[in-house]
Amino acid sequence: MSSLEQTAKTKLIKLVKAIEPVVEQQLAEFTTGEVTYVLEHFKQHLSYDLARDFETIREADLKESPFDDLLND
Which residue range forms the structural domain that includes residue 34? Predict the structure, then answer.
């Protein structure tokens, strides 16, 4: 396994483990009725799109040139 692959996987696992407690804490505040309502009406929206967040970062990195700082001076 490459160093990049290992580092990326490790950071992704760390990210997921950081998200889980937040989700559990917030879910604990829902009543049974609210959970049922959400499942009945919003189930299709109950996944968090990490890919969207990664794409946003990648696009921002692509738009920034390493020469921007030099040209802006």
Answer: 3-72
